[in-house]
């Protein structure tokens, strides 16, 4: 697998690999390869003629909105892609818009990672709108972490949770949601029965809006709330939620400014749950 765009034969090697349509080659991994916008037209042209690749990983490169426009055309032509990783590039809302124009035709796509970019609310809303309208909503794993999202994209994310029966993993950590946005998401989480893993870490909450929905939720198995700063008051609320929740297996509450008394409340909630399960 070619891994360094500085190799003068890099593009030819990548194109030949993709164009061969070798069924044994299921993944194109060009993460940290030094890709720039100028490399993408050649790669996109080859992708458009490929029918075997399952995973395309272009993370941690130097790709901008311009290259995503070219890339989207290639992705549209490759019917077998199941996972697309564009994390840690320089995608903005315009690039997300280009990508969204082809997602609703990708009925095989189950995983999408566009974390650590700058797509903002406009880009996130465009992508989610497309995913919601994809036939049978196949997406099961979505990472929107660290994209400067705010409360304006919370209704779209809530709608995705509501409409996508296959969505099991969602990462919206390290964004700029406030309590109003988290409340919109929490209301939907209380009712959903599909989501198994949720990461909202490093979203600073003035009030803990998640505990109430956690007590009602019947699907979550892991919840990452590291760095949410819920404090002892949030710990008290979490106690009540844990006492009634029956599915959660892993909860990260690190760096939340919860003192010993707050953790005692949380432990009480866990004990109540264990006693109920033992009965």
From TrEMBL:
Keyword field: Repeat
Keyword tRNA processing: no
One Pfam family of this chain: LRR_6
Superkingdom of the source species: Eukaryota
Keyword match Repeat: yes
PANTHER family named in the record: LEUCINE-RICH REPEAT-CONTAINING PROTEIN (PTHR24111:SF0), LEUCINE-RICH REPEAT-CONTAINING PROTEIN 34 (PTHR24111)
Identification of the protein by name: RNI-like protein
Species in which this protein is naturally found: Guillardia theta (strain CCMP2712) (Cryptophyte)
């Amino acid at each position: 697998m070619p891994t360094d765009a500085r190799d003068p034969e890099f593009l030819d090697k990548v194109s030949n690999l993709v164009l061969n349509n070798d069924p044994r080659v299921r993944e194109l991994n060009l993460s940290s390869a030094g890709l720039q916008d100028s490399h993408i037209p050649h790669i996109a042209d080859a992708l458009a003629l490929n029918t075997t690749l399952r995973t395309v990983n272009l993370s941690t490169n130097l790709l901008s909105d311009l290259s995503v426009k070219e890339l989207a055309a290639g992705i549209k032509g490759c019917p077998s892609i199941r996972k697309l990783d564009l994390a840690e590039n320089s995608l903005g809302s315009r690039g997300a818009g280009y990508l969204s124009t082809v997602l609703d035709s990708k009925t095989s796509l189950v995983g999408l990672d566009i974390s650590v970019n700058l797509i903002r609310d406009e880009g996130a809303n465009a992508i989610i709108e497309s995913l919601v309208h994809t036939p049978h909503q196949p997406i099961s794993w979505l990472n929107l972490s660290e994209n400067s999202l705010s409360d304006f994209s919370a209704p779209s994310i809530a709608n995705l949770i509501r409409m996508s029966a296959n969505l099991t993993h969602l990462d919206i950590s390290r964004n700029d949601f406030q309590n109003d946005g988290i409340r919109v998401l929490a209301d939907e989480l209380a009712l959903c029965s599909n989501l198994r893993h949720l990461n909202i870490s490093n979203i600073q909450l003035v009030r803990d809006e998640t505990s109430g929905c956690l007590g009602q939720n019947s699907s979550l198995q892991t919840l990452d709330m590291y760095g949410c700063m819920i404090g002892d008051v949030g710990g008290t609320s979490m106690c009540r939620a844990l006492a009634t929740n029956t599915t959660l297996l892993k909860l990260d509450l690190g760096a939340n400014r919860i003192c010993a008394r707050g953790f005692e409340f949380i432990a009480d909630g866990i004990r109540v749950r264990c006693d109920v399960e033992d009965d």
